[in-house]
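To illustrate the input format used throughout this study, we show a single complete record. The first block contains the structure-token representation of the backbone; no residue identities are included at this stage. The design step must infer an amino acid for every position from geometry alone.
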């Protein structure tokens, strides 16, 4: 499926060696395209610096040898980079790099369609003629990725035709013109810009939204080719008035507009003109917009700008503008108050004050909101993220980033902690978990309200369900309709496994795909055997039989679910242990077809450990796909993926949402195990616990993902004992390879101080953790008090990780509080229970009266007669 993306109407190719910065008319629309080579790198950085946030710059970097140069160019704000296939495979591994910023540049033009087939990256085609492009585009159909096209001798007709087909033509900048009558070989900007325009009006006019640079709507007008061409020519807002024809805004009122940008909306039926309004405003009523005056920050900016021009002498604003020391003092004062604010209202009020004084400082220096937002946008495209640690005196002041807390009147650590113990809201920014020290926020339940404790026990917020559903529904539909081809294209997109040609690996699995070290084989074998034993013991070997009345025998027997689909996550970590946890019970239960789905690596292969487990449990196939697409393929089946009856296994929000959707679709006829999402653990520790053990258990779940959550309930611990756990947590975390993930998880993790084990268990049952660890004096007795938990780990010698891998219990467990109503995966998850009843004649005589009476009550006469007819028959037979 093509990436949903807003494409420019064209790119104007410039030569970095001769570029002088004169791109005025071209800057109003489209983007600039240039070749960055080792010798033109400096110019490339210069143009990016010059245009960042104003003109999108597209760079062909296929001649650069150093990947770091490419990343630096993206960091400097390049909109997209055009890369070779070899560069792509290494760029793939760069964290935070948005795949939408990469365009693949196949070499040669012969087999472009073959290269395009199945890829989800945008493509740059360098072709001989427009007809070839036309036919390639047609062949690729609507769902193709974005295509950029350049051509040796490109004419206006070529560019227009390409635009019509939805491709982005690349035209040498010097060929572009704003002249009404172009000379030979020239290309009119307005024509290419409007190539794909669609008017939904009978008069052919284009509905035009006019906004300011902040995106605030100024008004709605109309345009046509003539007005657009004129607008580009003179750099002003020019429109088409239905009464007066060509309308150069401001010619009579003086309220004219400086043109900033012209572009189309997503489906090219509405033109967007971004303009800098001069004079009173856009509206004929002399207001800023046709919808009234500005509000919020725009209004504040307008007021400050006008005060700067003419503030009454002695007024407060005039003082602020003229006294920079006073202004700086106000900014610091308000920032400090914002740090101290805790309630929603106070934070809103203090943040407003900070913004007011900050904007005053900006206005004094002629810096506008638009400049500030451009700066924010430029930062948002950075690939290399700043660590964002607090610096210098501020780090010391708050004792973060390992800095010693300041003395000399500055708050000491104990003072901060003291402040911490005051009632606070969940989002309290003064929480101890600053990004330097890895530390959980701490709440004393004897001092806080129960409502606050319940609030802090909320799971980390997940992306909105609507948003996730909005992403997942189309994926499911695509795979259901497009089968293997769609499934593959999603794998190419998400897993970047572009070399993969078949979405399924069928058993018997080739030996070379499961080559492992002997230690790994031994470890898998030990775990396999323990999991097998524990799950085999859960088998109902014999049917259950109960004689409810003399001659009335009820029984229940189990049968395996025939075809099961097991989802083994593979996004943030490869989890062969999950393949064991799902595959072994399926095998023990006797499921006939075991299908395992897991996202492949970018080389298209599955981790050998997973292949080995699949082989051991007798899986019939491995679906090389992840996410919602894998779930859909197993729910509905495709040409090569076997349809299953039940889908089991944990996964991220896309996987969980897809499981929910398919299980609700009666036409899919598929059930699921449970919602199992981000890992979590709750540890209850008392004075007998070992701080290092406690910290290690918390960290073992925190390292799963930034959305994991870990909770410590400290039972009657004193400050030194809690501090010992905190210190251990920080020390051990800093030594972990996944420390960044841990940091993210700890952000929304908490320590709760309670007085006794009863309160600890009350909170634990309320939270219903996926894993509950009891590091307390009498853990077996405390286990009796557990009502809601996925799996319990009893005593100091039972780390949670033994359950994750090898003890024999299952690690696929309900999260997010679902332990209140769901069990974790167990043998019962793979079987159905069928009941049967067998009556003798006496049995029917004994129970028949009750049946007939109830059937009568329900007025279901046929039910009643089914008994009566038999009883009559017995009577006749007995009488004869
Ligand atoms: N509760 C349990 O028993 C248990 C056990 C193991 C793992 N887990 C949890 O399972 C989760 C695994 O998540 P994961 O992400 O590592 O792997 P995953 O395999 O669940 O998800 C990866 C897939 O997500 C899809 N995806 C990613 N971004 C997408 C996007 N923007 N749009 C659509 N699809 C997208 C891709 O298809 C990708 O293949 C973790 O939260 C982990 O803690 C839970
Ligand atoms: N703790 C996870 C379940 O929440 C499972 C797992 C797999 N590998 C390591 N841990
Ligand atoms: Zn784990």
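Output of the design step:
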């Amino acid at each position: 499926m093509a990436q949903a993306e807003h494409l420019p109407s064209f790119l104007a190719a410039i030569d970095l060696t001769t570029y002088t910065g004169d791109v005025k008319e071209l800057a109003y629309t489209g983007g600039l395209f240039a070749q960055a080579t080792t010798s033109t790198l400096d110019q490339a950085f210069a143009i990016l610096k010059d245009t960042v946030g104003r003109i999108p710059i597209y760079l062909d970097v296929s001649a650069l040898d150093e990947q770091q140069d490419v990343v630096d160019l993206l960091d400097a704000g390049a909109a997209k980079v055009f890369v070779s296939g070899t560069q792509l495979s290494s760029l793939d591994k760069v964290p935070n790099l948005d795949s939408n910023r990469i365009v693949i540049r196949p070499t040669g033009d012969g087999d472009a369609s073959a290269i395009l087939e199945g890829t989800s990256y945008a493509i740059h085609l360098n072709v001989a003629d427009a007809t070839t492009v036309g036919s390639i585009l047609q062949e690729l159909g609507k769902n193709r990725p974005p295509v950029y096209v350049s051509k040796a001798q490109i004419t206006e007709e070529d560019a227009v035709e390409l635009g019509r087909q939805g491709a982005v033509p690349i035209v040498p900048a010097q060929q572009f013109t704003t002249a009404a009558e172009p000379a030979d070989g020239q290309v009119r900007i307005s024509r290419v810009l409007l190539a794909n325009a669609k008017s939904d009006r009978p008069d052919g006019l284009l509905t035009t939204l006019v906004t300011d640079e902040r995106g605030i709507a100024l008004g709605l007008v109309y345009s046509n080719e003539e007005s657009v061409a004129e607008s580009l020519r003179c750099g002003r807002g020019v429109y088409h008035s239905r009464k007066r024809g060509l309308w150069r805004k401001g010619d009579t009122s003086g309220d004219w507009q400086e043109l900033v940008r012209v572009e189309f909306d997503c489906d090219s039926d509405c033109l967007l003109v971004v303009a800098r309004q001069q004079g009173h405003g856009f509206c004929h009523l002399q207001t800023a917009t046709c919808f009234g005056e500005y509000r919020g920050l725009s209004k504040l900016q307008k007021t400050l700008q006008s005060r700067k021009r003419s503030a009454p002498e002695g007024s407060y604003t005039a003082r602020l503008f003229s006294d920079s020391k006073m202004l700086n003092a106000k900014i610091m004062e308000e920032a400090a108050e914002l740090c101290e604010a805790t309630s929603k209202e106070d934070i809103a009020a203090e943040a407003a004050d900070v913004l007011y004084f900050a904007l005053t400082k900006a206005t004094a220096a002629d810096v506008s909101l638009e400049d500030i937002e451009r700066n924010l946008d430029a930062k948002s495209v950075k690939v290399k993220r700043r660590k964002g640690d607090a610096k210098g005196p501020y780090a010391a002041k708050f004792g973060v980033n390992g800095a010693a807390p300041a003395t000399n009147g500055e708050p000491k650590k104990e003072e901060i902690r003291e402040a911490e113990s005051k009632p606070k809201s969940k989002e309290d920014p003064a929480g101890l978990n600053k990004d330097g020290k890895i530390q959980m926020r701490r709440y004393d339940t004897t001092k806080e309200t129960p409502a606050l404790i319940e609030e802090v026990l909320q799971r980390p917020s997940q992306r909105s369900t609507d948003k996730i559903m909005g992403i997942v529904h189309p994926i499911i539909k695509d795979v259901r309709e497009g089968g293997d081809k769609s499934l593959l294209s999603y794998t190419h997109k998400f897993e970047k496994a572009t070399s993969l040609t078949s979405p399924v690996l069928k058993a018997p699995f080739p030996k070379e795909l499961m080559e492992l070290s002997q230690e790994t084989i031994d470890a898998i074998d030990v775990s396999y055997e323990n999991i097998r034993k524990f799950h085999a013991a859960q088998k109902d070997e014999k049917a259950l039989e109960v004689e409810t009345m003399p001659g009335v025998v009820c029984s229940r027997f189990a049968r395996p679910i025939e075809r099961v689909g097991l989802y083994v996550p593979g996004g943030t970590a490869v989890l062969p242990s999950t393949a064991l946890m799902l595959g072994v019970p399926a095998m023990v239960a006797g499921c006939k077809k075991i299908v395992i789905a897991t996202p492949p690596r970018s080389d298209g292969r599955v981790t050998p450990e997973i292949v080995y487990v699949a082989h051991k449990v007798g899986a019939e196939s491995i679906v090389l796909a992840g996410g919602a697409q894998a779930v859909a393929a197993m729910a509905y089946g495709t040409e090569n993926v076997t349809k299953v009856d039940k889908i089991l296994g944990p996964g991220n929000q896309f996987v969980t949402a897809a499981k929910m959707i398919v299980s609700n679709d009666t036409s899919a006829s598929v059930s699921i195990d449970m919602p199992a999402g981000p890992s979590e653990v709750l540890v209850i520790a008392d004075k007998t616990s070992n701080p290092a053990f406690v910290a290690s258990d918390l960290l073992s779940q925190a390292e799963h993902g930034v959305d994991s959550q870990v909770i410590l309930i400290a039972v009657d611990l004193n400050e030194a004992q809690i501090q010992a756990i905190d210190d251990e947590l920080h020390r051990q975390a800093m030594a972990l390879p996944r420390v960044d993930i841990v940091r993210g998880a700890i952000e929304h993790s908490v320590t709760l101080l309670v007085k006794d084990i009863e309160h600890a268990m009350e909170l634990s049952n309320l939270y219903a953790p996926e894993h509950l660890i009891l590091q307390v004096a009498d853990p077996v007795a405390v286990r009796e008090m557990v009502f809601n938990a996925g799996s319990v780990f009893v005593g100091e010698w039972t780390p949670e990780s033994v359950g994750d891998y090898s003890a024999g219990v299952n690690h696929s467990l309900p999260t997010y509080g679902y332990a209140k109503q769901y069990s974790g995966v167990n043998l019962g998850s793979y079987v159905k229970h069928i009941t049967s009843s067998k009556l003798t004649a006496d049995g029917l005589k004994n129970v028949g009266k009750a049946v007939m009476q109830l059937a009568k009550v329900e007025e279901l006469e046929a039910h009643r007669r089914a008994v009566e007819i038999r009883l009559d028959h017995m009577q006749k037979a007995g009488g004869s």
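Structural context for interpreting the output: Residues 70 and 296 are 39 Å apart (CA to CA). Confidence is low (pLDDT under 50) at residues 403-435.
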